[in-house]
Design goal:
The chain is mainly α. It has one domain (about 5-295). Helices cover about 75% and strands about 0% of the residues.
Length: about 300
């Protein structure tokens, strides 16, 4: 069966960013603008929303009722973040599938982005039901073997949980081309990825794992460069290395001055470039695989 190279798919995002530096710069500026808008939202956030965000960030898990209440309060902010991600994904797909050469025109807000957002929400709900089903299945299996003792309950319950996770991962990979298909065909395509990816699970899974591993390495290297430079700046300006950790946390004083300290702005700039690279690398394998599989499926003249 013909397929595609998982390695080429995994590295497609890096190839595009290397060959299209203007597009990478445009994506970085877009992410930076969204980050700045996030600061304005953070400063002007009502107390109720701030309390809900702190509750979600707490180490102790929330009860289902409290979790639902916090998610409801923060839903406008969460939907805005999801929409920004869909705008970025559509821009990446325009580069990968349509070979768009512009930079500003890559970013739009129209039916394409709204379809991607609807698809993401549908998959989010399906994922929640899938994990809930996996928990119920493992509990049911453990209950069925309870007459054989606690050891049997533990072994079979764990086996049922691992099996359920395997089913979820397999289904997720098989449906992973749904966003790029939705973008390419101009309609909501929830299950269209299933026949396209038949026989290509391991290629896709390998491409995704390799892409994530590569981008994690890039993130580590970027921080290895940024942190020493930032540390030198902090020490020269009269601070201590202990102050360096503050740029990674939300400032206690919720003001524009606190959010726009020079080192914090520099960190936002670096993270914006990395996030733009992240979007490209994560979106590229699916688009590369879809393009290759569609080309193979097309009738030959």
């Amino acid at each position: 069966m013909a397929g595609f190279s998982p390695t080429d798919a995994a590295l497609e995002g890096f190839r595009i960013t290397r060959e299209r530096p203007r597009a990478l710069l445009a994506c970085s500026l877009f992410v930076f603008a969204i980050s700045l808008l996030g600061v304005f939202i953070e400063v002007s956030m009502p107390q109720e929303a701030r309390a809900a965000r702190e509750a979600l960030a707490a180490q102790e898990p929330l009860e289902p009722g409290a979790l639902l209440e916090a998610m409801t309060v923060l839903s406008p902010i969460l939907l805005f973040g999801l929409l920004a991600q869909c705008v970025m994904a559509a821009a990446i797909y325009r580069i990968l599938l349509h070979e768009r050469q512009g930079s500003v025109r890559l970013f739009r807000l129209g039916p394409t982005e709204l379809r991607l957002m609807a698809l993401a929400l549908i998959f989010l709900v399906l994922t929640m039901f899938a994990f809930a089903g996996a928990v119920l299945f493992s509990v049911l299996i453990a209950a069925l073997v309870s007459p054989f003792g606690e050891a049997a309950m533990y072994i079979m319950g764990t086996a049922a949980w691992i099996f359920s996770l395997g089913v979820i991962v397999h289904t997720g990979v098989r449906l992973s081309l749904a966003p790029v298909i939705t973008f390419d065909r101009g309609r909501l395509s929830i299950l269209d990825s299933w026949p396209v990816t038949r026989g290509h699970f391991w290629r896709l899974a390998g491409a995704y794992v390799l892409a994530i591993a590569c981008v994690v390495v890039v993130a580590v290297l970027a921080m290895m460069v940024f942190l020493p430079v930032a540390g030198i700046v902090v020490i020269v300006s009269g601070g201590s290395l202990a102050d360096l950790g503050e740029i990674f946390r939300i400032p206690e004083e919720n003001t524009f001055a606190a959010h726009f300290e020079p080192l914090r702005v520099a960190y936002i700039l670096v993270s914006s470039m990395f996030n733009a690279l992240w979007y490209a690398v994560i979106a590229a394998p699916g688009a590369y695989a879809y393009r290759a599989l569609q080309a193979q499926a097309a009738p030959q003249p």
